[in-house]
Structure formats: C-alpha cells, structure tokens
Design brief:
Strand content: under 5%
Helix content: 40-55%
Low-confidence stretches: none
Number of strands: 0
Number of helices: 5
Distance between the termini: 65 Å
Length: about 90
C-alpha cells in the first residue's frame, strides 16, 4: 500500500516536467533570420569579436583600430574583405 502514493507522486512529477522539456523554445524565443539582422553591434559580436576583440581592440586577429592597419586599408578594402572574406585564411565572408 505504501507504493501507491509514491507512484502517484512520481507520475505527477513526470507529467509536470513534460510541459517544459529541455531544448524546447520558450514562448518569447523567436529567432531572427540571419539575413534580417541589421544591427552592427549584433553582427559584430556574432561574427567578428571572436577574432578581432570586442570593440575591435584586437585578439587572435589584427586590431581594427590599429593605426598602421587603418593607414593601409581604406574603407573600400575593409568592406570588400568583410563581404568576401579572405580565401585560404580563417577570415570568412559575412
């Protein structure tokens, strides 16, 4: 007779846990398609900061605020590399 209350409690716990299983998206967790993201801060943090550091201060790759880099790379070159990447390196196209 003592097993019945334990089994009922277990069944209630299992049923309650099923309403939010791991990995199930929450009610307000809509994902924006990558081609719809227009915020520079979001794009930079998701695609560039891992190598170039937060704020472009450097990391595994060159600092985007390095005066030597800025002296030799004009806006068109920077946009071209960001858009097309650098073949044969770890710099991907965006």
């Amino acid at each position: 007779m003592k097993r019945k209350p334990i089994l009922v409690a277990f069944a209630v716990l299992v049923c309650a846990a099923c309403s939010h299983p791991p990995g199930r998206p929450g009610p307000h967790s809509e994902v924006i398609a990558p081609n719809e993201v227009m915020s520079f801060n979001i794009l930079y943090s998701q695609n560039c900061a891992g190598c170039h550091g937060h704020g472009g201060g450097g990391g595994a790759a060159i600092s985007l605020s390095d005066p030597v880099f800025l002296a030799i790379a004009d806006d068109a070159a920077i946009r071209g590399v960001a858009a097309n990447g650098v073949p044969g390196t770890s710099m991907p196209a965006l």
